[in-house]
Write a structure and sequence with these properties.
Strand order of the largest sheet: 2-1-11-10-12-13-14-15-16-23-22-18-17
CATH topology of the largest domain: Rossmann fold
Helix content: 25-40%
Pfam family, one: AMP-binding
Largest sheet: 13 strands, mixed
Number of strands: 29
Distance between the termini: 60 Å
Organism: Nocardioides antri
Protein name: Acyl-CoA synthetase
Structural class: alpha/beta
Domain AMP-dependent synthetase/ligase: 9-369
Oligomer: single chain
GO molecular function: acid-thiol ligase activity
CATH superfamily of the largest domain: ANL, N-terminal domain
Length: 550
């Protein structure tokens, strides 16, 4: 038995070859066709000397070709490296080097950047060029670095499944940028990745699945699932794979467009939607309220990886009273850690409140594993035991700080803080590295952001800490107002006093046209801090009249 990602996909193919697997726009590909096309590309890669353990970058937007390429890489036991398609040359140079790429699969529209960066990397010799899903007529020159168009690469290749045995110990790497620092590659064994991100554990009971449990579901009627994030994001990739293992239909879009999203939901009768907090939820509900859509085919609406605020949730729940709403927490270093079904009558303003998932623990700053019953109210770092990553690729120091052994148990502890609640639940407070220490008090940005988003004139916000002579740091809010609205610091502080303790109130306010976030909606805190500091130095930031830290 090999609990390998490629094997798990092939099990679904064997029982559901005629079922639709992925749909993008008007184009749909069945499980059998997806198998055939990925086998052809896998043979091309093998002919180029790419095999077990070799790293192949995937530098592409959401498309059927992206899925074909991902599966092809996995089939030859190579390692797919997710590359952010918004990277500029310097960032591409970093990841090509750090990930030790031997091959690259990329959308044709990025040919000029690849031509600029690739020659610096001697290991990188194989290039497969995909038709761009947004600019299909793009004819950028890829010949200077030996790029081969996908159609040419697979033209004379066999579609046979003849790749030999694979291993549950094969590595699957997810590069995560998080909110700070350079991207780092999280190394998962295939079986561990499947267990915690691919549906290999029952998320409710914690019971492990057997190898063929998901493929048995492929013989049943398909669910129509719609993950909205780019596949370059680990969460979206995991969602796709989980649904491929069980024979579901996945709808993909190369670009997030709120109006088009609702058109697709109604046309395809999508049943499950996966999104990234307010960055997607807010424009989606505003488009829904302004348009003429039904959307009532949706019975499950899930958010993860970013704040889904109380104010925005309430608007969704009013429009979709029969849908199930869930907040899930986790990271590229832990996988799934917990989920919570949201009750419209008891929404939290602090952060996502979820039931603690299997093998999830809360670790105090002194390294003690907290008791979810006896330690209600205490704050610690979220952690996961059991199926956890091997470590960070080429970074033993970061690995040693994140993957720790406590009382003989190995934990992944990436740095997210949470508060233990009654009933085996936790409230996620945010990443400790972003915590603001003001006068000795700890302030978690996500908690303040959740409260600020309840203000009617605020569209989006990030909270950072700025240097302060008296308190060490002061709480600063970087706010994107709603169109045509004004936000004043004194008014905002008055609004927040019913939601937050005085020391958590922002004392500096910077207004911006757009909050810095990456393509998946994740907050870019370093950039937000730069904006706040620049505004403070230029004298354009608003500062609280009352100098007290209250």
């Amino acid at each position: 038995m090999a609990l390998n990602i490629a094997d798990l996909f092939e099990h679904a193919v064997d029982v559901a070859a005629e079922k639709p697997a992925v749909k993008v726009g008007d184009r749909v590909i069945t499980y059998g066709e997806l198998e055939s096309e990925s086998n052809k590309l896998a043979h091309f890669l093998a002919d180029r000397g790419i095999g077990a353990g070799d790293h192949v970058g995937l530098y592409a937007k959401n498309s059927i070709e992206h899925v074909i390429a991902l599966l092809a890489i996995l089939k030859v036991r190579a390692v797919a490296i997710n590359v952010n398609y918004r990277y500029v040359a310097g960032e591409l140079d970093y990841i090509f080097d750090n990930a030790d790429l031997k091959g690259l699969v990329h959308d044709r529209v990025y040919s000029d950047l690849v031509a600029e960066v690739a020659p610096k990397h001697d290991k990188l010799q194989t290039f497969v060029v995909l038709p761009d899903p947004i600019e299909p007529d793009n004819a950028s020159d890829c010949s200077s670095y030996g790029g081969v168009l996908l159609a040419d690469a697979i033209a004379d290749q066999s579609d046979a499944r003849d790749f030999g045995e694979r291993s549950a110990d094969d590595l699957h790497i997810i590069y995560t940028g998080g909110t700070t620092g350079y991207p780092k590659g999280v190394m998962w064994r295939h079986e561990d990745f499947w267990r915690v991100l691919g549906g290999g554990i029952d998320f409710v009971t914690g019971e492990p699945l057997e190898e063929y449990d998901q493929s048995k579901k492929a013989t049943q009627e398909s669910l129509v699932t719609f993950p909205l994030s780019p596949l370059m994001h680990g969460g979206a990739q995991a969602s796709l794979l989980m649904h491929l293992f069980s024979g579901q239909l996945t709808i993909l879009e190369p670009k997030f467009d709120p109006v088009r999203t609702w058109e697709i939901v109604d046309r395809e009768q999508a049943q499950m939607m996966f999104m990234t907090g307010d960055a997607m939820a807010r424009p989606l509900i505003e488009a829904y309220e302004a348009g003429d859509f039904s959307g009532q085919s949706l019975f499950a609406i899930a958010s993860s990886a970013a704040i889904f605020s109380k104010a925005v949730k309430e608007r969704w729940m009013a429009r979709f009273p029969n849908a199930i709403f869930t907040d899930s927490i986790g990271s590229s270093e832990t996988g799934f850690q917990g989920t919570g079904m949201q009750d419209a009558s008891a929404l939290s303003t602090d952060g996502p409140v979820v039931s603690i998932g299997p093998s999830t623990a809360i670790i105090s700053d002194d390294g003690t594993v907290l008791d979810p019953v006896a330690d209600v109210g205490k704050v610690g770092r979220t952690a996961r035991a059991g199926n956890v990553p091997v470590g960070y690729y080429k970074d033993p120091e970061k690995s040693a700080r994140t993957f720790l052994e406590i009382d003989g148990v190995r934990y992944s502890i990436p740095g997210d803080y949470a508060r233990i609640e009654e009933g085996n639940r936790i409230t996620l407070l945010g990443r400790g590295s972003n915590c603001v220490n003001t006068g000795g008090e700890k302030v978690y940005p996500e908690e303040v952001e959740m409260a600020i988003k309840g203000h009617p004139a605020v569209y989006d916000v990030l909270v950072v800490g700025l240097p302060d002579e008296k308190y060490g740091q002061t709480v600063a809010a970087v706010v994107q107002p709603r169109e045509g609205q004004k936000v004043e610091l004194d008014d905002l502080r008055s609004f927040l006093r019913t939601h937050l303790s005085g020391y958590k109130l922002p004392r500096v306010l910077t207004l911006v046209d757009e909050i810095p976030r990456n393509a998946t909606g994740k907050a870019q805190y370093p950039r937000a801090k730069e904006l706040a500091l620049s505004a403070q130095q230029a004298g354009t930031a608003q500062t609280a009249i009352n100098g007290a830290n209250a």
